[in-house]
Design brief:
Blueprint (H helix, E strand, L loop, with lengths): L2 H22 L2 E4 L4 H18 L3 E4 L5 H10 L4 E5 H8 L8 H16 L1 E3 L9 E6 H7 L4 H4 L3 E2 L1 E3 L1 H5 L4 H8 L2 E2 L4 E2 L5 H6 L5 E5 L10 E4 L11 E6 H6 L3 H6 L7 H12 L5 H16 L1
Parallel strand pairs: 1-2, 6-8, 7-9, 7-10
Antiparallel strand pairs: 3-12, 4-12, 5-10, 5-11
């Protein structure tokens, strides 16, 4: 065998090995670092394992929005669940909108153009911010909306992102000019409900799908001035992963529209309140979907 043929053979073998490596590359599913994200990530991972019979690598609980986005862009993960309002405000630095369809269209177009990332159809969850007070306070003070709340003075508990992001505390204050007894108390999201239950604060910035909203005596005040944008949950996935993984798009689209805020609240409570394993909660949800489709 002459030198040219030897080199060609080596190149051919390398190409074959690279091709095989690509074929067995696992699908890497990511999530951010709070319960709902981890549950959604696990549901997506199990669904792909069931439908595609491929190896799925879980990279859940990555951190905040910017870390998850950077992981997706860098190829450390192939997909993860994200929210339209978050993408507009935190990543794209675009004005937020309360119109769900408009927000989704803006995000889908901008991510495809700027990042080669595709946003698939919404899952059915709109996890917008929810300003929450004790039910006893709401009844005593006849509160239904955030405009009603301007009649009173409040102590506020918030998560770190809510305090810093333009679509969080700045948007709330610009729309309603609420009166505070002191600067907001910033804490981990998991501590907000304990804080309001113990009267350490009298209002918290929660999320619409928090599990404890349906389990405690609390009142979500209506955002009657639409300070907060729509936060539809969708799956953001790398375009090269979609092209290189047969059946992936179709499998992921099967989850579109299959969730509701109420069902997400229940799953979040199963994990946070009843301390059930995330994998089991995800498995139960997928079994429900399968049964409903028969």
């Amino acid at each position: 065998m002459d030198r040219a043929k030897s080199i060609a053979g080596v190149i051919g073998l390398a190409s074959l090995l690279m091709g095989c490596s690509a074929k067995i590359h696992p699908i890497r599913v990511g999530s951010k670092n709070f319960t709902e994200q981890i549950v959604l990530g696990e549901i997506i991972a199990q669904h792909l394992e069931n439908r595609l019979h491929k190896r799925v690598e879980r990279r859940l609980n990555l951190g905040g929005t910017l870390l998850a986005q950077e992981g997706l862009r860098a190829g450390d993960i192939d997909l993860y669940p994200e929210y339209t309002g978050t993408a507009l405000a935190a990543i794209l630095k675009m004005p937020a909108t309360a119109d769900p369809a408009a927000a989704f269209a803006q995000v889908r177009s901008a991510y495809a153009r700027n990042f080669q990332i595709e946003w698939l159809d919404p899952l059915g969850i709109d996890d917008t911010f929810a300003m929450v007070v004790a039910g006893s306070d709401a009844r005593a003070k006849h509160l239904q909306t955030l405009s009603d709340a301007t009649r009173e003075t409040w102590s506020l508990g918030v998560g770190y992102e809510f305090e810093q992001r333009a679509d969080g505390l700045p948007a709330l204050e610009a729309a309603y000019h609420l009166r505070w007894t002191a600067a907001p108390k910033t804490m981990d999201l998991g501590l907000l409900y304990k804080a309001i239950a113990q009267r350490q604060v009298t209002m918290i910035a929660a999320n619409a799908t928090d599990g404890l909203l349906s389990k405690m005596d609390l009142k979500v005040l209506a955002d009657d001035k639409h300070a907060f944008p729509s936060y539809q949950a969708c799956i953001a996935v790398r375009q090269d992963t979609l092209r290189g993984t047969p059946g992936l798009r179709e499998a992921l689209q099967e989850l579109a529209g299959k969730f509701t805020n109420q069902r997400m609240q229940e799953m979040n409570y199963e994990v946070d309140g009843r301390h059930r394993p995330v994998a089991q909660v995800a498995s139960d949800f997928l079994k429900e979907l399968e049964k409903a489709q028969k």
